[in-house]
Amino acid sequence: MGSRLTQIVPLEDVVVECPHTRTYRFRADMDPEPGQFLMLWIPRHDEVPMAYAFLENPLGVTVREYGDATHALAVESKKGYRIGVRGPYGNSFAIDGKRALAVAGGVGIASLIAAIEAYAGAGIEIHTAFGARTKEELTFLDRVKAAGPVHVATDDGSAGHHGYVSDVAAKLLDDGRFEMVLTCGPEVMMKKVVDTANAKGVPVQASLERYMKCGIGICDACALDDRLVCYDGPIFWGTDLATSADFGHWRRNISGQRVKA
Amino acid sequence: MADLGTEVAGVRLRNPTMLASGFLDETGGSMLRVHNAGAGAVVTKSIGPEPRAGNLNPTIVELPVGLLNAVGLPNPGIADYEAEAKHAISGGAAVIGSVYGRDAKEYAAVATRMASYGVVAVELNLSCPHAKGLGTEIAQDPEAVEEITRAVKKAVHVPVFSKLSPNVADIASFADAAKRGGADAVTAINTVKSIAISADLRMPILKNTYGGLSGPAIKPVGLRCVYEIHEAVDVPIIGVGGIETGQDAVEYLMAGASAVQIGTAILSRGIGVFAKVSQEMSAWMDANGVAKVADLVGAAHG
């Protein structure tokens, strides 16, 4: 549980990836690993956990607007706008195996992309099953393609398979070539991917999301069973998730009530 | 080997370390984890009558000297908390239920339900410095402390610990008020009201502006408060504030505490801090020829 002081940094660049999704770049004294996250303070609004989509300065996070805080960031932010950052927090993806499959759903690519590139950088063959609602939402498609083969799925059929990326992933896992699976996206999608990988005996790492307050393993807001997403995660192995009562079913709301996911 | 077993107002503890309220105690799973990591008891998140979201982030600021927080009493409410408390208790944890309310009646109602879940004691959060309308005013009013403590004592059969604020001129008078209300013990101290400012942004960092400081920075304050209470009032004390090591715990015992609570040190030493502090206390006692915890309580007083 490392101590990280808040750093105030100006935004160096803001890139609109698609409607409602932006990438924010900034320079800070941090040395994150693939899959780790930071707490991003939007002054006067809120502070939210975000995965690093760029691991080296200028660091970057890719944020889909999903609530007041991320909307405020989108509205307020322009080059020079100052945010607070603290981190890196949480564990990171294990880079291991001879051939790996990343399964990304929507903006889940933001926490996977650094790991996908790390696999490619380590000389491990990395395929990506990449799903989104429409082809416009396939953020970082160029980076994904540069790392290895891509298997696209869209909800509207505008690119690739017309349907769920979890089905594409299941098909890819059928031939037994993959020795590792990484996934991030909507939990219902990840549940399917984890169940499939577990059934086939392929190690799988899933990056989970829960409401967070502290980000440093003390406040218990992000509890998943008896684990903390901010401290024990955000990345969990499929073998651990197989015994989880919460994964895919329950989450904690802002008051700590256990509610249906 | 020194005996680390201790007793606070009739509550037997395997060792003097308790999890302080507010840390890893909103869920049963986490409390059980802290129990399994060696805590003598775990104090729950402060629970109120209804679910409460708490403050928006930033709710914590890490400082070189400690931790500033203004989480604002988030909790699932006493009804939903039944499952959490019972999960921890069924796993073997000695759970102390921390409760809050708007007035004596609400405190008593929440404490009654908390007691029915099987907790070994209830702790009254009379002193949260970062939740508007809850605690802050009570903490400044000895009569309110006495009235609430009395109401809860009437309502429950388990021991009642009144947790006091250091943000007062004379904490001993509040311990005395709690005792008059029937408190079986007092817990001292809650966090120290503080603020953190971003020089770059020329504004407070916490969304709530004010927060409570914990960690090493407040250890001398906590020690002073425990010492003053022990001098002035005959009541068992649970010491809390900046305890990270066995040595820190020994100092608190010498100031007058019968047990200690640990929270922020989870950050610096991990969840294993409870076992580590216990081992360090035991080693210190062995090296100094102290056989049992009770022999240390108040030892620094003349």
Task: Summarize the topology.
The complex is a heterodimer of chains A (261) and B (302).
Chain A: E1 7-18, E2 21-26, E3 37-42, E4 46-54, E5 59-64, H1 68-76, E6 82-89, E7 99-105, H2 109-121, E8 125-132, H3 141-147, E9 150-154, E10 161-162, H4 165-174, E11 180-184, H5 187-200, E12 204-207, E13 223-224, E14 227-228, E15 235-237, H6 238-242, E16 250-252, E17 258-260
Parallel strand pairs in A: 7-8, 7-11, 8-9, 9-10, 11-12
Antiparallel strand pairs in A: 1-2, 1-6, 2-5, 3-4, 3-6, 4-5, 12-15, 13-14, 16-17
Chain B: E1 6-8, E2 11-13, E3 17-19, H1 28-36, E4 41-43, E5 60-63, E6 66-69, H2 77-90, E7 95-99, H3 104-116, E8 121-125, H4 136-139, H5 142-155, E9 160-163, H6 171-180, E10 185-188, E11 192-195, E12 197-198, E13 203-204, E14 210-214, H7 219-232, E15 237-240, H8 246-255, E16 257-262, H9 265-269, H10 273-287
Describe the structure.
The complex is a heterodimer of chains A (261) and B (302). With 261 residues, chain A is of the alpha/beta class. Helices cover 22% and strands 35% of the residues of chain A. Chain A contains 6 helices and 17 strands. Chain B is an alpha/beta fold. Chain B is built from 10 helices and 16 strands. Chain B has helices at residues 28-36, 77-90, 104-116, 136-139, 142-155, 171-180, 219-232, 246-255, 265-269, 273-287; strands at residues 6-8, 11-13, 17-19, 41-43, 60-63, 66-69, 95-99, 121-125, 160-163, 185-188, 192-195, 197-198, 203-204, 210-214, 237-240, 257-262. Chain B is globular. The two termini of chain B are 27 Å apart. Chain A binds chain B through residues 1, 3-6, 8, 39, 41, 43-48, 82, 84, 86, 213-221, 223, 225-228, 252-258, and chain B through 22-27, 29-30, 32-33, 45, 51-54, 56-64, 67, 69, 71, 74-77, 80, 83, 198, 200-201, 203, 205, 207, 263-264, 266-268, 270.
